[in-house]
């Protein structure tokens, strides 16, 4: 009896998995050992493209990791401003690099509404091993800016960044869509990089080199809890 893992594939993972399935079938018809190799690749892809069962704590003060991966960099920066220029509020930027062995699904860092979902075309340069190469890729590579605002008018921004392997930056949520912290938000297919911009007053809870888990690892905490909600 063949063992079939009980995995729920993320919606945005099915196109990749379907293509892998077609390649597996065709190669099996031509040369069975090669088909078995591609079957292993298909199972590996299924593992990475699945929708994992994550437990996100209900805490409005916490900002959660939007992606599995390693914290590549933490810097003081400014909130991206799309095509409008450089007039933006100060922020702290947490960069997370998803590896090929990580789960690829990305989740919302906070509970709130989508304010902006903007795709900015660009290149797909390789992310190197030092900060200058990261900055060059950040300036020239394709990116998708997703701004989320919570009930207290506090905003964070998730920026999906293209790379040599991540050539499809996906978030199908329309502006105004309400989303819970830890809920699926999209995917950088595959093994992309994300920047998380949080208000400059936030307390950071991670450090460079740390491995984080989407929807579970707390990466930052808002400075203080507002006493009343904004109407």
In short:
Helix content is 19%, strand content 32%.
Explained architecture:
- The chain has helices at residues 14-30, 32-48, 131-140, and strands spanning 62-64, 69-78, 90-97, 105-107, 112-120, 143-149, 155-161, 168-170, 178-179, 184-189, 193-199, 203-204, 211-212, 218-221.
- The chain is globular and about 65 Å long.
- Helix 1 runs antiparallel to helix 2.
- The protein is α+β, with helices and mostly antiparallel strands and 231 residues long.
Protein topology:
Elements: H1 14-30, H2 32-48, E1 62-64, E2 69-78, E3 90-97, E4 105-107, E5 112-120, H3 131-140, E6 143-149, E7 155-161, E8 168-170, E9 178-179, E10 184-189, E11 193-199, E12 203-204, E13 211-212, E14 218-221
Antiparallel strand pairs: 1-14, 2-3, 2-13, 3-11, 4-10, 5-6, 5-9, 6-7, 7-11, 8-10, 12-14
Helix pairs in contact: 1-2
First-residue to last-residue Cα separation: 58 Å
- Structural class from helices and strands? alpha+beta
Integer average pLDDT: 88
- Strand tally is 14
Distinct helical segment count = 3
Strand content: 25-35%
């Amino acid at each position: 009896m063949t063992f079939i893992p009980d995995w729920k594939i993320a919606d945005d993972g099915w196109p990749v998995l379907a293509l892998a399935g077609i390649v597996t079938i065709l190669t099996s018809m031509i040369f069975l050992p090669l088909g078995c190799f591609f079957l292993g690749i298909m199972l590996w892809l299924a593992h990475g493209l699945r929708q994992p069962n994550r437990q996100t704590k209900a805490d409005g003060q916490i900002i959660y990791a939007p992606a599995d991966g390693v914290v590549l960099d933490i810097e003081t920066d400014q909130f991206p401003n799309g095509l409008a220029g450089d007039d933006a509020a100060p922020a702290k930027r947490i960069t997370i690099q998803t590896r090929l062995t990580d789960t690829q699904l990305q989740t919302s860092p906070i509970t709130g509404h989508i304010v902006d979902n903007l795709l900015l075309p660009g290149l797909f340069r390789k992310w190197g091993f030092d900060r200058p190469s990261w900055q060059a890729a950040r300036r020239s590579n394709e990116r998708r800016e997703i701004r989320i605002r919570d009930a207290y008018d506090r905003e964070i921004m998730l920026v999906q960044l293209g790379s040599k392997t991540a050539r499809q930056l996906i978030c199908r949520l329309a502006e105004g869509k309400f989303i819970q912290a830890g809920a699926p938000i999209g995917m950088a297919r595959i093994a992309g990089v994300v920047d998380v911009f949080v208000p400059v007053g936030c307390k950071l809870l991670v450090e460079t080199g740390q491995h984080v888990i989407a929807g579970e690892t707390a990466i930052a905490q808002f400075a203080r809890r507002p006493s009343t909600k904004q109407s």
